[in-house]
Amino acid sequence: MSFKALPAGATIGILGGGQLGRMIAMAAAQLGYKCHIFAPEAESVAAEVSAHFTSAAWDDAEAMRAFTASCDVVTYEFENVPVHALDPIPDHKLAPGPRALEVAQDRLSEKRFIAELGGTPAPFCGIDRAAEIGEAIAQIGKPGILKTRRDGYDGKGQWKVDDAVPDDVSVPASGLVYEGFVDFECEFSVILVRARNGEVRFWDSTHNTHEGGILAHSVLPAPAIIGQQVEAARALAKQAADALGYIGVLTLEFFATKDGPVFNEMAPRVHNSGHWSIEGAVTSQFENHVRAIVGQPLGDTSSVAGTIVMDNLIGEVALDVKAHLSDPKAHLHLYGKAEAREGRKMGHITRVG
Ligand code: AMP
User: Is 119's pLDDT higher than 70?
Assistant: First the structure.
């Protein structure tokens, strides 16, 4: 069905109520759209900047139906929404579609999907029962990492295996995946936006560094090895987006290795490693996600400077707000979260130029 571009004043539904939804809603507001957040939590930092908020369980079909009826298009900022929860949303209203969610919320499916497209994930093996762990490790070798197939993020649900299997490993009903430890030079992501007409644009790939499995910094310019591997990584990301008939912003994370880019994981959404694009690109990932899903033309993804640094504010950081606001190159973003728990993303700072 052809999609008629939504005019300003239309309502965008967002599944998930975190900072990504908050930044999508702020970009949507700039273009005159209203947002309606659906999230299971009672409070939401995305709802704070949106016109409407439904706080209900994912499987509350009645609430999902009423939410859908109030929206002109529905998107998501969180990939672990149970796929069956989307049943009340008609296909033409959901962007990106449910297939992207299905593939990306299961580490085994996404690795198989990428391998089928000709990409290179780390060597991997699925595990359904504890008794299969030894066999998987024997097949792939050590060192490696056991990861929960579902619901893992920011390094959660992961166990490094150097020698013996850690005592606290448990196999959830949805299983584990064991993957070989990748000897990488550095990490980068490909962030693209795909419009309803199939047009694809990419942002520059930053050098991403993690601390404790959580993204800490994204930096441009990236080391030369990323520049040498980004074309192959982009070709794979575009293939993935085309195969999914994807609409909106899609992120694929890679390890740059001496043998070329190794796929780590994909996120069917805007991504922390693209936050720099708010001030560092002509059009941010958030604005282009909105443009794509409402069927309007995409904006220019070019960077506005050669040097851009994004630092995440994680947990209880001692934040000198005055100093950051006095720095002419710094853009401070605070997500409005009341409680600074360990590992929680509280905000970020982007310095341009
Ligand atoms: P993930 O949640 O899978 O993105 O993992 C978080 C971080 O852990 C990654 O960004 C890497 O820094 C590291 N990591 C994950 N998987 C591997 C791997 N197979 N080999 C080496 N490092 C990894």
Answer: yes
Ligand 1 site residues (CB inside 6 A) read 122, 145, 152, 155, 179, 181-182, 187, 210, 213, 253, 264-265
Q: What is the pLDDT of residue 154?
A: 67
- Same domain for 221 and 155: no
**Quick one: DSSP state of residue 349?**
E
- Give the distance from CA 161 to its chain's centroid: 26
Q: Exposed, middle or buried by CB within 10 Å (0-12, 13-18, 19+), for 208? A: buried
CA of 255 to the centre of ligand 1 (A): 9
Domain membership flag for residue 117: no
For strands 200-202 and 144-148, give the pairing. unpaired
* Stretch among 99-103, 156-160, 234-238 having the lowest mean pLDDT: 156-160
Tell me how far apart the terminal alpha carbons of the chain are, to the nearest angstrom: 44
- What is the spatial distance between Cα 262 and Cα 293, in angstroms, rounded to a whole number? 29
* Residue 168 exposed, middle or buried by CB count within 10 Å (0-12, 13-18, 19+): exposed
pTM of the model: 0.97
Residue 254 shares a structural domain with residue 326: yes
Domain ranges, residue 134: 123-180
- At 267-295, the pLDDT tens digits run 999 999 999 999 999 999 999 999 999 99
| CA of residue 167 to ligand 1 center, whole Å | 20
